[in-house]
Amino acid sequence: MLDVLIIGSGGAGLSSALSAKEEGSTVIVVGKNHPTTSQTSMAQGGINSALGNVIPDSIEAHIRDTINSSHGLCDESMVRLMCEDAPMTIEWLESLGVPFDRTDESKVAQRRLGGASSKRACYAQDYTGLKILHTLYDSCLKNGIEMVEEYMLLNLIVEKKVVQGATFLNITTGEVLEIRAKATIIATGGYSSIYKNFTTNADDSTGDGIASVLRAGGEVSDIEFVQFHPTALRGSAILISESARGEGGYLVNSKGERFVDELLTRDILARAITLQIESGEDVFLDIRHLGEEKILKLMPQEVHLCKLHEGIDPAFELIPIKPVAHYTMGGIDVNQALEVSGLKNCYAVGECSNAKIHGANRLGGNSLLEIVSMGRLAGINASKTPLELDYITNTTQLERDREYIDGLFEEYPWEINFYNTQNELGEKFYKYAGIIRDNNQLNNFLNELRVIKASIDNMGIGDKQKKNNSNLVDFLQFINVLEIGEVLLDSAIVRDESRGAHYKEAFPNEERLYQAHSVYWIEDEVLQHRFEKVKSDEN
Ligand SMILES: Cc1cc2nc3c(=O)[nH]c(=O)nc-3n(C[C@H](O)[C@H](O)[C@H](O)COP(=O)(O)OP(=O)(O)OC[C@H]3O[C@@H](n4cnc5c(N)ncnc54)[C@H](O)[C@@H]3O)c2cc1C
User: Fold this and answer.
1) At 154, which helix (H) or strand (E)?
2) Which is the closest atom of ligand 1 to the Cα of 242?
3) How many Å apart are CA 4 and CA 12, to the nearest integer?
4) Closest CA to 189 of 170, 156, 166, 212
5) Ligand 1 centroid to residue 11 C-alpha, Å
6) Number of other residues whose CB lies within 10 A of the CB of residue 106
7) Which of 30, 34, 38 to mutate to test the pocket of ligand 1 (most atoms within 8 A of CB)?
8) Ligand 1, CB within 6 Å, residue ranges
9) What does the pLDDT average to over 292-307?
10) What is the best residue among 368, 377, 401, 474 to mutate for testing ligand 1's pocket, by most ligand atoms within 8 Å of CB?
């Protein structure tokens, strides 16, 4: 039997594949796309490690900055584990061949990102994620790791709470099949695409792995915490990375006034920009004073994106921006060994997981670090998973999923165009569950979402071809959006306070009562909730 099944071929999935293979496990990595096209490939700014290569820095300062930014919602020992491992992580990536930029002394170059007390982000121009992902992928191929492309996770196969693998839609053929393994690692990325058209993420960041855990009886947590990046291009929502501000860029309004310290954390900046926009101002990023040569050397991708998508040259013109959904702090609830709460033989890592590292607000540069550092840990831990004695091989899940997909092809009507609904929902999530939240709006929207969820059987698919059916994939993703969206809205409603990225005008302060993780699971088909006290080093 296969030792480790890894679902998701982004940075987290590929890092865990390499370490599981090093441990001697047999490994298969399955992804719904090609391995080189995940969100990881889009990361621009850098990956954090307190190397102190440019100005003095320390691991303690990295830990302190991360804890401060979490607003009391992190597990301090997980933060310590990751920050202490960061120098080894960079060394490992270098040993695989990641071409980081260099200082004049040939050390790895570092830049400052928001909320960091030093220049801590190691980078490869503004293509950091792309270079890391492609290097990891090369290494997986060199190590003979089997990669399966265009398989979409449908459901986990669970027997007595033990995960035995998962069912997949083979997108190219339309078949539904299963892959079984002793241990399963979920590395399927975040759910920012709930905010469709108002996110820096690709449309397929629909939290599929998170929804599959909910359906399987596992737990998810802190789903209300969504990070809005302050500087996306106004028209296209494409990201202009924090490196632009890290290198000295200004935020200005229509009057040309700077209105906030540009290197504060993203939650504060996103709110400051939103208030400017609500007062009738346009907001811009201004990097003209850095000079064309420096801009082209350090941010070639961003220059290209500005020209292509906004029709402006940032070396000579202001960049029009707005904040949009960028990163999801909540996800599959895991313990310190990255095991999924409520399930056995199952791990989650990367943006799909909530390892309590980022809390209420992630620091720029800490996600790439998490996916590689924790990815490697997940691979090691999964490799040690024993085969459960009561492992059984009934095929109920496979049959159920085949029946459902057959039904979509043959029976379910196509009465409502879910694409329109999804676009409308994206805008409503941005308006009502976005940067500034209000209970009345959240409650009304939750009721509306539940009505839509109840009508899902009338939506279905119009394209009935089995092979390469993107209509089917989009529909399955939309179902996941509805399931996670419900949790997002409910968790935003019950948290009557403001903390990090979650801000309610009526409750503007952090409340001790809510220094807790909001945990959700499904029991007897009903969504359940509890608040769980934050683990601190004292308890
Ligand atoms: C534009 C942009 C810039 C960023 N810049 C930075 C930065 O500079 N520094 C930083 O630290 N972070 C940055 N981030 C955040 C960081 O890139 C991501 O959080 C991180 O790469 C997530 O990695 P991951 O492996 O967890 O998920 P992903 O890279 O999203 O990979 C998820 C994988 O799961 C697969 N998958 C999803 N659903 C299914 C399914 N149903 N079945 C099978 N496979 C599935 C996908 O195909 C993909 O292979 C940025 C993010 C964006 C969008």
Assistant:
1) strand 151-159
2) 8
3) 14
4) 212
5) 7
6) 8
7) 38
8) 7-13, 30-33, 38-40, 42-47, 128-129, 152-153, 187-189, 200-201, 208, 239, 241, 327, 350-352, 364-368, 371
9) 91
10) 368
Is 288 labeled as catalytic in the residue annotation? no
| Cβ atoms of residues 59 and 133 within 8 Å | no
Comparing C-alpha atoms, which of 442, 459, 427, 450 is closest to residue 506? 442
- The residue to mutate among 48, 227, 367, 405, having the most atoms of ligand 1 within 8 angstroms of its beta carbon, is 367
Locate tokens 């994206």: which residue? 426
Tens digit of pLDDT for each residue in 159-205?
999 999 999 999 999 999 999 999 999 999 999 999 999 999 999 99
**Token representation of residue 370:** 């998490």
Single out the catalytic residue among 112, 266, 437, 495.
266
Q: Are strands 176-180 and 346-348 parallel, antiparallel or unpaired?
A: unpaired
Neighbours of 525 (CB within 10 A): 5
335-369 pLDDT tens trace: 999 999 999 999 999 999 999 999 999 999 999 99
40 CA to centre of ligand 1 in angstroms = 4
pLDDT at 289 over 70: yes
Give the Å distances, CA to CA, from 507 to 200, 446, 511: 28, 19, 9
Confirm whether pTM is higher than 0.70.
yes
Kindly compute the dihedral angle of the four CA atoms of residues 340, 343, 347, 350, in this order, to the nearest 10 degrees.
Answer: -40
Q: How far is CA 236 from the centre of its chain?
A: 20
* pLDDT given at position 389: 54
Give the residue, by CA position, lying nearest to ligand 1 atom 53. 201
| End-to-end Cα spacing for the chain | 40
* 102-150: pLDDT as tens digits: 999 999 999 998 889 999 999 998 899 999 999 999 999 999 999 999 9
Side-chain-side CA neighbours of residue 369 (13 Å): 32
Q: What is the pLDDT of residue 539?
A: 43
**Euclidean distance between CA atoms 362 and 303, whole angstroms:** 25
Compute how many other C-beta atoms are within 10 angstroms of the C-beta atom of residue 536. Answer: 12
